[in-house]
Amino acid sequence: MSVINAPLVGGASASAQAAEAAASRGIIRTILRSPRGVCAVAFLLLVIIACALAAVIAPSGPIVQDLSAVNRGPSSHHLLGTDALGRDLLSRLLYGGRSSLVGVAEAVLALLVISVPLGVVAGYTGGAVDRVITRTADLVMSIPVIIILLAVLAMFGRSMSTAMVALGVLGAAGVTRVVRSAALAVREEAFIAAAEVMGQARRDIIFRHILPQCRGVIVVQTSLFAAIALGVQTGLTYLSLGPAPPAPTWGGMVGDAVTAFYTSPWQIVPPGAAIALTVVAFGVLGDVVRDAIADTHSAGASGRPPHRARRPAPAAAPAEALVHVEGMSVAFGSGADETTVVQGVTFTVGAGEAVGIVGESGSGKTVTVKALAGLLPRTAAVTAGSISFAGTELSAGGRRAYRRVRGHGIAIVTQEPMRALDPTFRVGKLLADLVRAVDRCSRGSARTRALELLGRVQILDPEDVAQRYPHQISGGMAQRVAIAMALAGRPKLLIADEPTTALDVTVQAEILDLLRGLQRETGMALVLVSHDLGVVAEICSRVCVMYAGEIVEVAHTEELFAQPFHPYTRALLNASPGGRSDTTALEVLPGGVPSPRGWPIGCHFADRCAFAVETCMAAPVPLRPVFDADRQARCVRAEELAAPVEAAT
Amino acid sequence: MSLPLLDVEGLTVDYPLPRGRTRRAVDDVSLSIATRQTVGLVGESGSGKSSIARAIVGLAPRTAGTITLHGGASAPPARRIQMIFQDPYSSLDPTKTVGYSVSEPLRVHRSPELTRAVIRQRTADMLESVGIPASAASRHPSRFSGGQRQRIAIARALILKPDLVICDEALSALDLSVQAQIINLLTRFRDRDGVSYLFISHDLSVVEMLCDEVVVLYRGRVAETGPARRLREAPLHPYTRGLVAAIPRVDPGARAKARERRELLRTPVVPAPALDDSCAYRHRCVFAAERCAAERPALRAASEGARVACHRAEDVAAQLDGGAGAPAAIPTGGR
């Protein structure tokens, strides 16, 4: 079976894969991959081991006095000097660290024992259990911690352990809520539903699926809490609320140093540095894990390069074309990580023309129009070629050139209409503000024009819709409003990026009918991006088919569908259920779209092509006219493959 | 067709809303699936497709109605029914290896003969049979593309040899060329192992490819059921007619006809009234009459094994098709 040959790494973008890899990698490995993480872990381990071995490595006992050396600085005899009673500071630091670290451990243990089970159960179970747990947590969070700690210390005869456990219990409330949110998010994942469908017990689901997903959050919260606990512990011992002197504590040492500050300022340095560095190490540890988790949620957030200067190669644009894109390449990342996702794209859009760009995910169609509109994410840049709009070179002019064409020149409608509308304003206000911004007119006339625009997109009762907030209208209505907003500046070019993908089929047809009507009425040009050949056929007179970052075929719509020249276009047509009238088995294209890092030197489609020959793989295949200047295909065998079909018809 | 494998009778699903109110997602829906049969469930978002699926596997509350498997107990045993989800990126636990995820059902339904070696072997066989190399078992899902993950999810659903697999928009997130691979894979398992599918989709053209029978839902109620091919070629309910006319078409002739049909069926967009004992589609229906507001249309038999819930199905057919039961005679306009 040919599908077995599918490459193991497919269409997903490289950065997303790296991020997901971080999620499935263990947290420990994540920490050890980061230099900051290694430093923090090494320092904490050093402190813990040194304190644990205090009896072995400390030069003297914690309360041994050397009255011949009082208030001394560091010397070969006393590495960190001595205090007012001639006690060795290094020894006191090591012995004192024990109580501090044990205290932190007690607090953290109490925190975890309470917050993790409660948080996970509240998040996963929901309902009444969730309400009881979160309300209780809210209640506990409102209790002033320091008063409770002082009361506990007073009641239990200065027992530091009891105080630290109390601190852990009080701190658990906040962490419970954080863990609950994490569990709640995991609960919505489909693999949890899958586990429930296969009949897995709730306890197993919690231990096998929910907990592993929450562990990052738990580690972050724990390390940050450990830093707080150390601060509280030393604070309490500084106030002499812990073990009674002369027992060594870090806080007590700071206290002693403060009294001796004018005679011997050095004494504050060893305990101060120990406390500060340990707190920082806990914080850094949490930070490293947090960054790793954040990366998994926002793919490509790491290693964001500065906005790069574009390297345009201006070319003379034909005067009649509204848009002329010539040899444009777009890359994500920089330096060694630079990945080209769109390569040598050339196309034109005439004034008032409707052009479709069709391709699967990973074909680069959305990146292409984003580059055209100057809306590339900060991680991406146009690395070659030129984009000219109405005679203006955009790629050389940078942001300023784009600012001039936005609104009046180029407008864009995206896949998710709801995200294009600010939820805090009424629809009418959103539109009127936009009209005022582009037309610089009065409030009254802006409002009139806003209503007119809403009527323009065939909204039956514009007055009513204008009064609504975006969440009060349906998805189809929201897309109409988004189109009305795009029309506000009377653009010469409207880019519609998968405008109907998120909508129901019947609504999709309505929006397409609307777009077609508007395009004819206003005479604006339209670039429609879609994965669906049928959608493009509804509106566009010309189609560019994209595959793995390149345009593989350009043709007039009817000609393309009547007789595709490129084998990929043909395969796409055959695989499209809407494009066929019979119901025989679908022709299967083996494998998937290669990822940008796996593009071959020759034809990008050769691996999956039934007609590939050696010449296909040898060298890059150019996009060239086939039979006719208007029809272009990126295939060395285009004429040859077209011939039998032509003979048959 | 043999005995019904799954029988859903009068299913109603209500979701609780704040302040004791409820929202009816599924309203008195009946359907049955025979062995080796593929039934499609079509409708727009919010039509209750997923709620029906979730009620069948026990993930959604059931207010009324019965769900029977093999004519047996009311609660279907988990291992007989499995599910494939829409998003291949969220349906596999990213922290577990592919082998772990695929073999998990075997470990949940543990039995003595399932030793570690047997589980490993069955996992490898299952992966191979969905076109994923067995060596993939030790990798994490992040290493795979969407289509490959969907194959892995199919392997997990089929490893217990279930009688029924519910595919909840299982193709919607995949690319066109990959969709075809998965459709063919599902067909192969149906022919080889006799699996039945309940195939949920908003895309009528995909459903038509794969299904024997189709149930069209509108706002939680069945609008029309019937053989898939007939539904596409000669829809009866005004809603199904709109749905068929809305399919984007590549062929210029079919496109012009569909466009014309859409013009005939177009009504001004108005907010939907609350569900009551009337036709749920009447606010969007060109043909709505007094009776549609007064009485809820029952699902009744129509031509060629089809059943339709529309008071005026015959009048509509007469107006649009030029005679009751004479479909496909769509007038060709000069466009």
- Can you tell me the CATH architecture of the largest domain in chain B? 3-Layer(aba) Sandwich
The quaternary organization reads as heterodimer
Structure class of chain B? alpha/beta
What percentage of amino acids of chain A are in beta strands?
5-15%
CATH class of the largest domain in chain B: Alpha Beta
Count structural domains of chain B.
Answer: 2
Q: The CATH topology of the largest domain in chain B is what?
A: Rossmann fold
Number of helices of chain A: 25
**How helix-rich are the residues of chain B, as a percent range?**
25-40%
Mean pLDDT value of chain A = 83
Would you tell me the structural class of the helices and strands of chain A? alpha/beta
3D architecture notes:
The complex is a heterodimer of chains A (649) and B (335). Chain A is of the alpha/beta class. Helix content of chain A is 53%, strand content 12%. Chain A is built from 25 helices and 12 strands. In chain A, the strands form 2 sheets. Chain A has an 8-stranded mixed sheet, with helices on both faces. Chain A starts with 13 loop residues before the first helix and ends with a helix. Chain B is α/β, with parallel strands linked by helices and 335 residues long. Chain B folds into 2 domains: 6-92 and 157-217, Rossmann fold (3-Layer(aba) Sandwich); 234-334, no CATH class. In chain B, 34% of the residues lie in helices and 21% in strands. Chain B has helices at residues 49-56, 98-108, 116-129, 146-158, 176-193, 204-210, 228-233, 238-245, 252-265, 290-294, 313-321; strands at residues 4-16, 22-34, 38-42, 64-69, 81-84, 164-168, 196-201, 213-218, 221-227, 300-301, 307-308. An 8-stranded mixed sheet of chain B has the order 5-6-7-3-8-9-11-10, with helices on both faces. A 3-stranded antiparallel sheet of chain B has the order 2-1-4, with helices on one face. In chain B, strand 1 and strand 2 (22-34) form a beta hairpin. In chain B, helix 2 (98-108) packs across helix 3, helix 2 packs parallel to helix 4 (146-158) and helix 8 runs antiparallel to helix 9 (252-265). Mean pLDDT of chain B is 85; it is low at 323-335.
